[in-house]
Every structure is written in structure tokens, then in C-alpha cells.
């Protein structure tokens, strides 16, 4: 697998605090991977995204994006490869209408107007928001706003999309639409997704989960392995997944196989136990 | 907040809507200027007819323009009253102390009243038919010559459009904070002046703090989307000046000539 982001011995301390936010962190992220970074508030998740995008400067360590070590000169090039969708859709809108906002990133690249019109239409069609083109962002729902934010990021054709708690302000429906959309785009366009969240249920679409605590990676593995930690996840400020909770209740009376089962697997297992055939 | 018509945009479609916003913007200012040239009944009547014609062309319900007058109703009344009672005259109809009431006073008060109406109507027409973003685009394009003296035109335009875009959000935020403070027992609009002013502190401080955090989030989001310093950017939104707009300028010139003629008539 091809590495797209490689982080080595990264350190960062906020100017106003004594405790480092990121402590000697090393992490490789591969192409087309969906990586979830989880951890409680203040574990350094958001700081890490800002470091990757060069929005804040690391105290020490290196970040390599697509084979290039990031420094002050090439950060704008690196940024073109990365699109970030932030938490609060209201705070990331720049444009006065949906189309203006989607065009913002393209305007920054100095793209000629004729191409921009095509790109804006393409990006809005991808997120199924074409009918809302001339609408004022204030008149949209939270999920629609977040889809426009995704369109704004997609218009610039990034290779990496970082979702910084992008679904935390959406209702369950809006969250599902946004996550399904991102999954679909990842498959279609060979994108790398880095999703940051403190909701363990939200990581089910990912291929790999990194658990961050106090600015350090404490666990790194496949979702099944992480979910298998069960109640130990609480140590890192994370909720136990639903089926894991359910299993510990069922285990009292029933015999279940060792290890983590997804909701579907658990259902099958229960059918098996109770069928008389 | 819903009652204020001044500065609000009303979606619609008519010839006035389709005019180039730059032209509309400049000509509105120009018109406000030439209103002061009118000096007799004929010239005022002519300008009033012109404004009513423009209002008619916009196809907007006339009621909106009347509503536009409402917030400054008391100001108009006050000014008209001052003119009515303080215009010196040799043949006063009524006289008491420093107050004089005369035919001249009545005429001048009438002029002032019409002047207010004309200015409010024409500026309401501009804001009702032009979106805020069109206005900020116009300002950017009008200020463009200032670039030569290193005036940061693009940055000012961006600030203006962001400010306009965040007005409804901050209004929402203010209502939310007010409700939250009310729920905690803060009483707005009660008591003497000093107490009333003091009760606004619990709104202002959270509002400032949240503006700062919005500004920070927005700046980060803009930077992550590749916004450098306004240089080397292309523009998605382009204003186009066509035949209609030339016609509007021509029409305005004719209006000025007729006005000058009526003035010396």
C-alpha cells in the first residue's frame, strides 16, 4: 500500500499551555484508506488535523504528504491535496450563496471562470445539492449545509479529505447521509478519508482506528480489534459499542464465542443458539 | 426585526432587478444628490413622478415603500415641524413668541417632506431589488481605481461580503443569548436608563466572545481552502453591463436636463 501521509516524531505545545498537545506522535496513513481518529475531548485530535494541514506549525518532527516533506514554502501545494470539513457548518461558510461558497476554493486557485462554473455544477451534483445553487446558506438545514461544505472541498479535487467532527452537529439522518456520501466518494475517486470523532459508533465505516489519548497514540488497529476492548474503551473516554454492551449482558446467561461481534454477527449467533433445527 | 424594510432584499423579477447593480448603486447616489437641486413645485412634482415611475417599473407592492418610511417617521415629522414653525416670514399667519407660522414655512416644510420621501423611496428601491452581495460587488468594482494608491480593495470587499453574510447568523446568536439570559432571570427593557444599559452587558460580552470564536473558525476554514491574501484570485461572480444599463444612464441624464430646465423656469 502506498503511503500518502507520513508523520514522524511530531510534537506540538500550544503557546498558552505547558502540557504538550501532541507528544512524539508517529503515524502512517495509506492511500484510499478510511482512517478514524478517536479520543476524548482534549486528546489532540483537532490539533493533529491542523498540524497536517499546516494551519499551525509543529514544534518538532516532520510531516510528509504525497512524498513531500512539508515546510513553509510548499504548504500551499500540500493544502491543495487536502480538504477539511469542519464541525460547525455555519462557521465555515464564506460565500453568500451556495454556489459562491463552493467556488471559493477554486477562486483561490485562480481558476478561469468558465472552468469554475463547470466545477461548481459538478461538485454540487455529487452531493445532490444542484437545486439549491442560488440559495442563501442560512436557509438550509444542518445536513444540507454540511453537504455544501463537502461540495466546496470536492470542487478543488483533493486526494485527502479530513472530517473534523463534521457530523457532530447533525441529526442521525443527516449524519448517515453525509457518511454514506463520503464512503461512496472514497470508492469512486480513490480518496483517503481521515475522520475525527469521539463517537465510537461513527467509526464503523472505517478500515482502521487510531485511539489518541493525551496527544499520543494508545491503540492502532482494525475496528474489530478496537471494539474488542469493550469496557476498556472507557479509559480513553470512549463509549463502548452497542453490540459489545449487549454481549456482556447476554454472556451472563448464554454462551457466546469470544471476541467482538458486529450487530449483524450477533444477530446470526443468537439465531443459531435458539434455532431447534 | 422583521418590521425593518430599510436595507432588506426582496426576491423578485422586473426590469429594475435586471439592471447592473453598479449602475443602480451609483445612480441612486446621483439621484439623492440631484434631489437637492429641485427648488420649486414643478421640479419636485417632476422628481416625484420619476420616482413613482421607477417604483412602478420594479413591480414591487407599494406598501413596502410606505413601510420603509416607518422607522424614520418621527425624524421626518420633527424636521417638518421645525421648518413649519421656525421659518422667518414678513407676513406670518400666526405668531407667538419665537414660533411663526407662515405660507413660506408651509411650502418649505412641504419640500422637506417630499425630499425625505424621494430619498427613502429611491434607496428602498435600491436595497429591495439588489442583493447584499451585489451591493458589495458593486462597491468593490467602484473602489477598484483606489488599488493604484495601495488601498486593499479586494480585502475590503471580502470583509464587506463576510460581514453581510454573518448578519443573520449574529442576529440568531443574539436572540439565542437573550433567551438564555432571560431564562436565567435577566430582565431586558425594565427599569431606569442606567439599569437598562447594564442589563445589556450579559448579551454583549457573550456575543463578542462568540464572534471571536466564529472569526477564528472561519479564518481556519478559509486558510484550509487555500485563501492566501486576496492576490491571484479569480472571480466566480461577474457583473455585466449591457444595453439596458446604458439606457438607464441616458434616461437619468434626460431627467437631470429636465430638472435643470424646470428649476430655472
From TrEMBL, chain A:
This is Cobalt transporter ATP-binding subunit. It is a peripheral membrane protein. InterPro entries: AAA+_ATPase, ABC_transporter-like_ATP-bd, ABC_transporter-like_CS, ABC_transpr_CbiO/EcfA_su, ECF_ABC_transporter_ATP-bd, EcfA_1, P-loop_NTPase. Belongs to the ABC transporter superfamily. The keyword Translocase applies. Gene3D superfamilies: P-loop containing nucleotide triphosphate hydrolases (3.40.50.300). It is found in: Cell membrane. Residues 5-239 form the ABC transporter domain. PANTHER family: ENERGY-COUPLING FACTOR TRANSPORTER ATP-BINDING PROTEIN ECFA1, HEAVY METAL TRANSPORTER. Keywords: ATP-binding, Cell membrane, Membrane, Nucleotide-binding, Translocase, Transport.
Automatic annotation (TrEMBL), chain B:
GO terms for molecular function: transmembrane transporter activity. The keyword Membrane applies. It comes from the Bacteria. Keywords: Cell membrane, Membrane, Transmembrane, Transmembrane helix, Transport. The keyword Membrane applies. One of its GO terms (cellular component) is plasma membrane. It is a multi-pass membrane protein. Pfam families: CbiQ. Its main location: membrane. InterPro entries: ABC/ECF_trnsptr_transmembrane, EcfT. It is found in: Cell membrane. The chain crosses the membrane at residues 29-57, 69-86, 106-128, 149-171, 203-224, 245-262. HAMAP family: EcfT. Belongs to the energy-coupling factor EcfT family. Transmembrane (T) component of an energy-coupling factor (ECF) ABC-transporter complex. Unlike classic ABC transporters this ECF transporter provides the energy necessary to transport a number of different substrates. Forms a stable energy-coupling factor (ECF) transporter complex composed of 2 membrane-embedded substrate-binding proteins (S component), 2 ATP-binding proteins (A component) and 2 transmembrane proteins (T component). This is Energy-coupling factor transporter transmembrane protein EcfT. The lineage of its organism: Bacteria, Bacillati, Bacillota, Bacilli, Lactobacillales.
